[in-house]
Amino acid sequence: MSAAPLLEVRNLTTHFHTQDGVVKAVDGVSYNVNRGETIAIVGESGCGKTVSALSILRLIQEPPGKIISGEILFDGLDLLKISKEDMRKTRGAKISMVFQEPLTSLNPVLTIGRQITETLEQHRQMSRSAAQEEAIHLLNLVGIPQPEQRIKDYPHHFSGGMRQRAMIAIAISCQPKLIIADEPTTVVDVTIQAQLLELIRSITRELGTALILITHNLGIVARYAHRVYVMYAGRIVEHGPALEVYHRPAHPYTVGLLASVPRLDEPRKVRLVPIEGQPPDLISPPAGCAFRPRCAHIGELCQPNLPVMFEVSSGHYTTCWMAQKETKPWTKK
Amino acid sequence: MDKEIILEVKNLTKYFPVTSGLIRQRKVAEVKAVDGLSFSIKKGEMLGLVGESGCGKSTVGKCILQLHRPTAGEVLFEGKDLCRLSDRELQPLRQKLQLIFQDPYDSLDPRFTASDIIGEPLRIRGLHRGPDYRKRITELLDIVGLSPYMADRYPHEFSGGQRQRLGIARALSLQPSFIVCDEPISALDVSIQAQIINLLDDLGEEFGIAYLFISHDLAVVRHISDRVAVMYLGKLMELADRDGLYASPLHPYTQALLSAVPIPDPAVEAERPIIVLKGEVPSPLNPPSGCVFYPRCPKSFESCPKVPPQLKETSIGHSVACLLYPTSWPKP
């Protein structure tokens, strides 16, 4: 267990320069992923979770975006320092990505088969015919019926769920060490979501692939992730083993998120408890703790500057001043 | 005991023609978007309508409001069949029937200020003229939890949750008795969703508004609805009061839907087996014979492809369209 993590992101800062000012989309984010592990990055739209993942693959368009600082150590190699050519060899081969919208991320004028064989020919130096065969095998693996015929289809012939299966086939084609899945099931229905996520889980288990699951759905995180990172306004506010974070949340934002969603397994609540207010504007976020304007548990320990990551229990960290108290203000029952 | 029924839908059917040809359009097929739906909504009640995308749930909402004219069936509101009324005859009834849209970004005119948006229905009806107009706007903003000083802002100055509040204020402006909410929270962030759900809940109670709450989020529907209808491929699969449906879902589709919703608790999820349905929703152009769900159903048997099941009451207030269940139940 003490082996070095597969991926280590240190102090990543990615900004976007817009007409209105600098958007601090990712502001000093650190996380790590161990081999074969599934971590989840949760947060609401605009919290920087997608940008942090795109930064790993150096897919941030520049301008307007720019990775200002940080290190991304993948297998000991800093991805921010290697050449463009080396990065291209890493992308798709060692780290691959499953995007949110399969319709816009698949090429509409290439057949599904070609989009899979392209990767195989590029990264695994396969011949056309060998790649063709492998593509059929991959489509079969991700559960597409009659892969010999479907390989000639274009993305618009596929339904949303099948397109996402094809994306997964592309992502696993080179047996990467890490897959980044960015909201992989947000645009599909709940029964298809279950199919796809169970598929991703069985594949990553079988291949020993590590997975970064980016989502806003707390239920998905609970089912599939080993560890969770909660992001708010471009920063990680809490992280730890999934069970710890869900059962003993240590940041008022996590507490609020968990309280605001209705659960099917519990008696129906008379009233939901929302988090009041809106997420902050990332051009001029509040100084110090960004959650302060919405926080229901501001107390005597709160200080104007942001607390450093503070360990509440083994492997469970938070950036809340009040979490340093022996009894947390939100654990009254 | 029984509250009065405010809206009754009988055998509602909507087929959309599929045409071919450039100049002379010929009808080549039909999409059976809604196929023989019947249900009723009581005063002040919230009926949840759940189903996957493309199952026809939004079409049901639009057919009730006569934004789509149904192919067949009746929509009874205040003793009148809305389907038989002309557009002119519908006009006075429309103010009592309102709609809240899914996308708070597309459903507000970007060139209107908040007060223009909320006040448009009032202006069209010629209500609250003069100084009274501004007062009513302020009142509506207050009801949905916005500040009066926001009245002169444009939609882009509002956040998603605030825009949805504007959409709600607009729907409320004519004091409707029935509102169709078409996925009103699915475009919003988790922390904001609860705000809007609570608001809709409060308004229903305060003004006695009946809702048809269309959603694909089963946990939210359970939270907010009094009764729940489950749709699949244009047909009603199950209809029951909330607690009955969630405690003992009868239809295999409902069971699979409920099991596919992950619960935000890793300890629960580690133990919970889920029903993963095979395949995908078939095309409504060419729906399966018999029970439309049978190709994906884990419990289908030889009769399923042959006999289309009818929606039958299996216990008080709990109806299901599935051949697994007896067609009649002993009345007490």
**Binned strand content of chain A:** 15-25%
Strand content of chain B: 15-25%
Number of helices of chain A: 11
CATH class of the domain at 5-43 and 52-96 and 210-320 in chain B equals Alpha Beta
Mean pLDDT of chain B: 89
Instruction: Tell me which protein chains meet in the greatest interface and how many residues each side has.
Output: A-B, 45 and 43 residues
Gyration radius of chain B, in Å: 21 Å
* CATH class bucket of the largest domain in chain A: Alpha Beta
Helix count from the secondary structure assignment of chain B:
10
- Taking the alpha carbons of the first and last residues of chain A, their distance comes to 37 Å
Q: State the low-pLDDT regions of chain B, or none.
A: none
Biggest sheet: strand arrangement of chain B: 6-7-8-3-9-10-12-11
Structural class of chain B: alpha/beta
Order of SSEs of chain A: EEEHEEHEHHHHHEHEHEEHHEE
How helix-rich are the residues of chain B, as a percent range?
A: 25-40%
Assign a percent range to the helix content of chain A: 25-40%
CATH homologous superfamily annotation of the largest domain in chain A: P-loop containing nucleotide triphosphate hydrolases
Poorly predicted runs of 5 or more residues of chain A: none
Q: Mean pLDDT of chain A, as a whole number? A: 89
Question: For the CA atoms, what is the radius of gyration of chain A?
Answer: 21 Å
